[in-house]
Structures are given as C-alpha cells and as structure tokens.
Amino acid sequence: MKYVLVTGGVVSGLGKGVTASSIGLILKACGLRVTSIKIDPYLNTDAGTMSPFEHGEVFVLDDGGEVDLDLGNYERFLDIKLTRDNNITTGKIYQSVTDKERKGDYLGKTVQVVPHITDAIQEWIERVAVIPVDGEDGPADVCVIELGGTIGDIESMPFIEALGQFSYRVGAGNFCLIHVSLVPVLNVVGEQKTKPTQHSVRGLRSLGLTPNIIACRSTTALEDNVKEKLSRFCHVPVDNIITLYDVSNIWRVPLLLRDQKAHEAILKVLNLEGEPALGEWTSRAELCDMLHEPVRVAMVGKYTGLSDSYLSVLKALLHSSVACRRKLIVDWVPASDLEDETAKENPENYRSSWNLLKGSDAVLVPGGFGDRGVEGKILAAKYARENRIPFLGICLGMQIAVIEYARSVLGLQDANSTEFDPNTQNPCVIFMPEGSKTHMGGTMRLGSRRTYFQVRDSKSAKLYGNQSFLDERHRHRYEVNPDMVQQFEDAGLSFTGKDESGRRMEIVELPNHPYFIGVQFHPEFKSRPGKPSAVFLGLIAAACGQLESLLKKGEAATNGFSNGTSAENVHRLGNGTTPANGNGSFDGIYCNGNGVHV
Predict the structure, then answer these.
(1) pLDDT per residue over 330-368, tens digit each?
(2) 235 a catalytic residue
C-alpha cells in the first residue's frame, strides 16, 4: 500500500479537499486503484451534530456515516463509495482508546497520547486503507490522506506525531507528503510573497514531517524566481513545487496538476509509473466553460449565507446543467425573507427575494432542520405549484410540499409538521417511531435505503429508468403521516415511491404539473460528474424545456438511471451551440443573492 498525505499551512480554506481529490483522480487516471481518508482533528465523534454555518454540509454515506463534506468531493471525483471509518476524528480515536482501557486491553499500563493514541491512529489508517471502495475485490494501490486544519494547530498534534511515525514505519517509497500552502500577493507591492510558506514548511519539518511536494495556492501562476526561492528555503526540488492558481471551474484543478507534471513527481516518490488518461475529464471541463445559455434555479433555504451548507446540492445542479448544456445560475433566496413578517420589517429584502423567486426557471427547496424560514419555504412551494414552475423538494423540502398541499388544496389551514407545531390538529408530517428524542447524534434514519415505485408511469419512475426500485441515501427524523396518505391521493397528490413496508412515503409528485417532485431521500449525495442525479436532471431538463424530450426518447431507460445518467449521452438534448467564450467562477456555478458566490 502506498500513502499520499495532504497537509495545509498558513490559513485554512485553501482547498486541501479539492487538491486531495484531484491528486486521487490523476493517480486513478494512471491506472491505479485509489481510496481516501479524511482526518478531522475536532473532538466531535462525527459531523452529524455540527451546524452547517460552522462546518458546511453534513455528507451522508451509504452506511449512514455523517461525515465531513470533503468526503463528498472524494466520492464525486473518484466515483467511489466510502465508509464512515474513512473519516477519522479525534473523538473517534479517543473513544476507541477509552473503550479499550475500560475493557482492560492495556493490562494496567498508563494510557498516554504517545504511544496509545498515536498507535490507534496508525492502526485505524492501515485498517481502513485496505477496505475496497470502488466495487472491486482487494485493497487499493494508493490511499490519499487529508489532514484537516492547519499545521501548528494544537488539536492536530497527535495526528502529526502519528503520521511522522507512520511515514518511518511504511518506509521510503511508500509515503509521499504534499503540503498545500498560500503564496499571497500584496496589493501594495504586487509581489508574490514566499515567507508564509517558508514558515509553514519549517513548522512542518520541526514536527517530524518533510514535504516531498509543495502545492502553492495563489491567484496567478508562480513566477520562476519565486519557485527557485521556495526550493532553496524549503529544500524541495523546483519541479516539485506546483502552482494551484485560480481556474474557471473546479474540474480544471486535476488538469492543472497534470500540466505541471505533478503525477510524475508523486509517482517518482512512490516508485510507480503511469501517465494519466484524462480525455473525458478534459472534455467535461472545457464544455463547462463554453456554456452560455443560462438556467436559473432559485435555492430557497435556511443556510443561504454559506454556500458550503448546500455543497452537494450545488454540485448535483451543476452536473445536470452541464448535461443539458446550460450555464447554471443559482439565485439564493433566504426562506425567511419570503414571509409576511419580513415585508413589514425589511420590505427591500422581501421584494428582492420575491423577485428572485419569480425570475427563476426552477425552484429547489433543500433539506434542513428547525422552524426558521419554514413558512417562506411553504410560500415558495405554493408559488411553484400554482404557477407551474418546475419544483424539487428534498427531505424537508418534500415535507414542505405536502404541508402546503394540505393547507391550500385540502383546506386544512393548521396543517403542519409536529417538528414545528407539536399540537397541530392536522399533523401531516410526524416523528418517526424509531427515532430518539433524547440523543441527537447518529439517531436519525441514515444511509442507503430502498424505495419501491408504486406508479410505473410517473415522471420519477421514468427518470430512474423504469426500474422497480432505487437505493438512495437518507437523513431525517420526520416522515409524511401515513394515516393521511389516502386523503392526499384522493385530492390529486401521488406518492409514487414508498419503502418496503409501504407506509413510509419516499417520493411525491403532482401528475398534472410540468415537474413537481418531492423526495424524502438526498439524491445529491450520489450525483457524479457525467452521471447526474435523476431527479436533479429532471428538474433542469424541465426548466430548459427538455424534459419531454428526455422522457420521450427513453434516455433514462437506455442509460440506467439508478444513480444518474451519462452526461455525454444527454448532451444531444441541448441546442449544440458553442459560444466563443465562457468565463466562470471556481466551481463553474454562478450564484446571485446576498453576495454569495461559489
């Protein structure tokens, strides 16, 4: 087993996750099997109880693991399925060591950070690295490890010590350290400054780790004299100093590494050979930049102040918009700004949010928790339903659509979820019987669950290739009240997907609407570049006027939509135009509203 460790210095938020994913991708393109591990030094057992404002979205894995969003990047780039153990936290390590101590496994020894915690970290890495994640038998060839945080952080010290010991243990030729650092440009002098990186590397070496490669984040490519200076002071060959400058879309980062021969430097350290074949990836990156005809999606949510809160949703929209040959524009609409209360307190925000909603081609209400903004989401669902605007509700978004239908169509004015109104007389969304009301962490309905289609002629069934069932990932505590389902269906709402018991509603549709679908699961977690999620692709296709063509031509059935379809096969649905240029943001997503850009 070969190991590639990615660390970060100077400041957080440099893009270590994207860098680690891109490194994994170019190694995979060289014909190697790759797996990934993310180390988060925080004391939480997992990311499940952390606020999206604090740490971005919680990514959910097939096995129900609630993990850091970087594992989502790994899965999307490498097209793999990771496990909860691929995310190591300080909380998990200390808990495992404490459990062993309580069982007497240490035979009376004094349990210390060194060697017990550091040994536990190394054992965890070795154990998880051999777990197959690509659907094939046997261990991977290379494990890419990302160490969260910044070199010098107190909480990461045990991991630094453990990884220093680990590099010595596995030996030269089996361990490559890539340090991601910042080379800022001061506006006053306009010069690329190397001192922060010099200090960062010095700190890393003082802790027992020596970088083989330095990946420098900067707004522009590093000048030759800057590379030579870094090489001299950091004791790294000039050819092993890579520039990660700003690019037009995230899919260009692996190409950036390839063009600078980063793969050759990594393979040389690991005593491996190979040349990356990135033809399809290159085509996708170039296509993303060429798109100019826009599709506007109103994202009506609670956490619109931080785009990372909905990272996988944004990626799923991007995958689908590229498949439909459209440039994605996301209009962020804070749900609470749509409510009547805001009209009184802040009429400008109220008008602005409603203008964004009314100017969109599609409306998406993502998942969330808590009652803030719920009434605004209900108003957004009502607007989309009454004005026949393509609508997709995910998790809470599906429950919102059901509540709105109960109020507006069934005439149940006090209809609500018991999450928001425990005393409602018409509880159309209720707490699941198996849930815990005393413990929050890991107590939801989590991970991959099977949904069986009830109506074969529905849009959702067609989008998923007319299969009898699908497997998607879940994360929820509340569900549609099964005792009210017949009442809803009699009024025209169709529950086209249910679980194996037939009492848990998974997919809801309005048959007489151009595209109005709610799903209890989170399809965004399994969307991939080139294989967009079925319901996201349906939303974008409906917004672009391509849905009928998509369903009529049988694209879904032909390409097997269990996780999505091939973007290359869907491209012909677009108009085929090739604009002369296409500038974009780092992710290829254009976002408006509240100054938030992705």
Answers:
(1) 999 999 999 999 999 999 999 999 999 999 999 999 998
(2) no
Q: Mind spelling out the 3-state secondary structure of 105-142?
A: CCCCCCCCHHHHHHHHHHHHHHHHHCCCCCCCCCCCCE
pLDDT digits (tens, 9 = 90+) for 157-188: 999 999 999 999 999 899 999 999 999 988 77
Coil, helix or strand at residue 355? helix
C-beta of residue 319 within 8 angstroms of C-beta of residue 531: yes
**Cβ(257)–Cβ(278) under 8 Å?**
no
Q: For tokens 């590229």, what's the residue?
A: 322
Amino acid in the structure at residue 548? E
Helical (H) or strand (E) element with 589: none
DSSP labels for 215-247?
A: EEEESSPPPHHHHHHHHHHHT--GGGEEEEE--
Phi and psi at 496, nearest 5°, equal: -85, -10
Candidates 363, 291, 374, 292; CA nearest to 332 is 363
Which residues, 6 or more positions from 212, have their beta carbon under 8 angstroms from its beta carbon? 176, 177, 178, 236, 240, 265, 266, 269
Three-class DSSP category at 485 = helix
Strands 516-519 and 391-394: parallel
Q: How far apart are CA 392 and CA 406, in angstroms?
A: 18
Catalytic residue among 419, 522, 544, 555: 522
Q: Look up residue 58 and give its DSSP letter.
A: P
Catalytic annotation, pick one of 395, 428, 544, 591: 395
Instruction: Check 524, 544, 555, 591 and give the catalytic one.
Output: 524
Contact 37, 126 (CB under 8 A): no
The one-letter code for the residue type at 31 is G
Residue 395 known to be catalytic:
yes
Residue 522 annotated as catalytic: yes
